[in-house]
């Protein structure tokens, strides 16, 4: 990453902090973005996390500047990219890590809670990517990494807003990969498994929940960073349009939606024939209502 400039959003804590520090260690100049908000995305007065990460990078001999804008604002996103251009003369990669949570059961979810999470995760990823796109196009290179989640890829209770945003990010990443391929710009999604303040909000009211939380505490946020750095480096130049996961020392490549069964009739379908033939034919291949914890049942390694 020597000579490259990178924007990492939500980089004041947790996964984002680890990525910013690893980017700098690999030689990149880093725009450390963090709004300094609460987990719900409220506030914004606490700007110290970004400044602290910048101080760490500079103390180690690296280059970094802090930015306190909101990814939910298109104008702020453009300022983040401008900060890279003004400070380092270029922008080579964007890591869309900023996030918030407003968990509640779907039938109890308020519109404001849905909109707030979509605005940060999904719209925020669009805003920063869109702001970087003209520079990437002009220099015929660039890398985008968007944080998805197994909550979106698989499922979780009480996260309709978060699940919609995180699965939407997969579609956004693939769209960017397709549309920007001719400009040598690549885009990938990564589902990070890490114990952060977002995960710390998971309730532990039952013995089962408590056991799950204890397992999640083993997930070190800094473990995500090496993969993200490699993905944005020249070594990842041919990797685009993919969905990955990183869980401590494990790295996953996730499948993408493809047909698994078909049903055909020469006469055309009626509601009755669908009910009589298609549903029974497909039943063995229907996906159960798994949650993320039902799929990732083994301890982190």
From TrEMBL:
Domain (Ketoreductase) ranges: 4-201
Family matches, as Pfam families: adh_short (PF00106)
Protein family membership: Belongs to the short-chain dehydrogenases/reductases (SDR) family.
PANTHER family, per the entry: BLL2957 PROTEIN (PTHR45024:SF3), DEHYDROGENASES, SHORT CHAIN (PTHR45024)
Name this polypeptide is given: 3-hydroxyacyl-CoA dehydrogenase
Stretches that traverse the bilayer: none
InterPro entries registered for this protein in UniProt: KR_dom, NAD(P)-bd_dom_sf, Peroxisomal_Beta-Oxidation, SDR_fam
């Amino acid at each position: 990453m020597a000579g490259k400039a990178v924007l990492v959003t939500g980089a004041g804590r947790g996964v984002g902090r680890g990525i910013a520090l690893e980017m700098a260690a690999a030689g990149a100049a880093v725009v450390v973005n963090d709004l300094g908000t609460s987990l719900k995305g409220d506030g914004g007065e606490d700007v110290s996390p970004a400044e602290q990460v910048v101080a760490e990078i500079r103390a180690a001999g690296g280059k970094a500047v802090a930015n306190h804008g909101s990814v939910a604002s298109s104008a702020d996103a453009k300022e983040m990219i401008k900060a890279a251009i003004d400070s380092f003369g270029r922008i080579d990669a964007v890591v869309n890590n900023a996030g918030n949570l407003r968990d509640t059961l779907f039938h109890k979810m308020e519109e404001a809670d849905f909109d707030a999470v979509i605005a940060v995760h999904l719209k925020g990823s669009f805003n920063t990517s869109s702001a970087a796109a003209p520079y990437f196009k002009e220099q015929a290179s660039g890398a985008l990494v968007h944080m998805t989640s197994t909550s979106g890829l698989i499922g979780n209770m009480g996260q309709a807003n978060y699940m919609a945003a995180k699965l939407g990010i997969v579609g956004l990443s693939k769209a960017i990969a397709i549309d920007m391929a001719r400009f040598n710009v690549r885009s990938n999604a990564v589902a990070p498994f890490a114990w952060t303040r977002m995960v710390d909000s998971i309730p532990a009211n039952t013995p089962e929940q408590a056991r799950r939380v204890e397992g999640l505490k083993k997930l070190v946020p800094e473990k995500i960073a090496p993969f993200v750095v490699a993905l944005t480096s020249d070594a990842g130049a041919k990797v685009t349009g993919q969905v990955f996961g990183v869980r401590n020392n494990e790295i996953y490549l996730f499948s993408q939606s493809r047909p698994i069964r078909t049903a055909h009739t020469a006469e055309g379908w009626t509601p009755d024939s669908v009910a009589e033939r298609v549903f029974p034919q497909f039943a063995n291949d229907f996906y159960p209502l798994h949650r993320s914890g039902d799929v990732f049942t083994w301890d982190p390694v």
